[in-house]
Specification:
The protein is α/β, with parallel strands linked by helices. It has helices at residues 2-6, 49-68, 91-102, 123-133, 144-153, 168-182, 198-204, 226-239, 249-253, 273-279, 287-290, 312-315, 322-341, and strands spanning 80-85, 106-111, 136-140, 158-162, 189-193, 213-217, 243-246, 258-261, 298-301.
Length: 353
């Protein structure tokens, strides 16, 4: 089964069953829920809409069974995860570490003081060593190419905890939060107001597949990656959704069900702070911004938040879903790890996405 998953052409399995080609666009996934087992989660670009829904369904199911019903589910008992953190994080570390342990597994946290990826040992050798000792790697790195090399040289799944290009596990939490709030995702309009960064890239690679429209406002010179934009436009065309770009935050907020932003100065960009704050003047999300949004608009931010990005009136208002969003980092990473490492099938009814 894994052979077929890693080779995306319609080749014969060892059991003699012919497998259909998987669609990474809007079509139905060919192999069903089990197709997620053994997969790398480097970018949501690599997953179809149905596969993304499978991650979300599993997360919602685990949240219901563990949090609401108090069940003990040792689904990852006997398994371990290597957590490589080149960048610090509150939510990514706590959600992964506590989530993996809650499922009966053993998390191993590795900082730059414990492991210098590609410095005192090659990335290739690190991938091989960790493959022999653990069952999955989650890496939060500066360079996306490091994740790709870990995935290429290792023999276990690799999960992107954040790179300069993508942040898929954050977007899964955002989608679960919106699903819980609105009851479905299809037809919603998201308004991104801020930097053309890794979080935006992940929205662009996945929102169209879920039937969501995306308005993007970035200052001139801070637009999303050109290659990502090209793929996103193709996805939107294939999926029949709208993808709109502007430099005007108010225009981007028009008709939006969710206003979304992120930090303007990411880790590693501290020297650019003064320049960035000047460039992003006028991009703060306020109640005035929300006046052009849909009447039921909500607010999301992956945190940590700075007041210049969104004022207190919005951030602490009933429209803000940021703390529900933060908690859902735990349930969605748990859902992803369970899907990637086991053949788990949710017991709850599939949500109406």
């Amino acid at each position: 089964m894994i052979f077929a998953l890693r080779n995306l052409s319609g080749r014969w399995l060892s059991l003699g069953i012919k497998c259909s080609v998987r669609s990474f666009g809007c079509g139905q996934v060919a192999l069903g829920a089990a197709s997620l087992k053994g997969r790398h989660l480097l970018s949501l670009k690599d997953f179809s809409g149905e596969e993304i829904k499978q991650f979300l369904w599993t997360a919602a199911d685990l949240k219901m069974r563990i949090k609401q019903k108090g069940e003990i589910l040792p689904l990852l008992q006997g398994k371990s995860i290597a957590m490589i953190f080149e960048k610090r994080s509150t939510r990514t570390r706590i959600s992964t570490e506590t989530g993996f342990a809650l499922l009966g597994g053993h998390p191993c946290f590795l900082t730059t003081q414990d492991i210098h990826l590609g410095v005192n040992e090659s990335r290739k050798d690190t991938a091989r060593v960790l493959s022999g000792m653990t069952d999955v790697i989650l890496a939060r790195v500066y360079k996306h190419s490091d994740l790709e090399q870990l995935a290429e040289d290792g023999t276990i799944p690799v999960i992107n905890g954040l790179s300069e290009m993508y942040h898929p596990i954050q977007i899964l939490a955002d989608y679960l939060t919106l699903q819980e709030h609105f009851g479905s995702l299809n037809g919603l309009t998201l308004s991104w107001i801020g930097d053309g960064n890794n979080v935006l890239h992940s929205f662009m690679m996945s929102a169209p597949k879920l039937g969501m429209h995306l308005n993007v406002a970035t200052p001139k010179g801070f637009e999303p990656d050109a290659d990502v934009t090209k793929v996103a436009k193709s996805l939107a065309g294939e999926c029949g959704t709208k993808l709109f770009f502007t430099n005007d935050p108010v225009e981007a907020a028009s008709g939006a069900n969710a206003l979304v932003t992120d930090t303007w100065v990411s880790m590693g960009q501290e020297e650019e702070k003064a320049e960035r704050l000047k460039a992003f003047h006028g991009y703060q999300i306020t109640m005035k911004t929300g006046k052009s949004a849909a009447p039921n608009w909500t607010f999301l931010h992956c945190l940590p938040r700075k007041p210049e990005e969104v004022d207190d009136e919005v951030f602490y208002s009933p429209r803000s879903l940021v703390f529900q969003e933060a908690e859902n980092r735990k349930w969605t990473i748990m859902g992803a790890m369970v899907n990637i490492l086991t053949d788990y099938s949710p017991l709850s009814n599939k949500p109406k996405f």
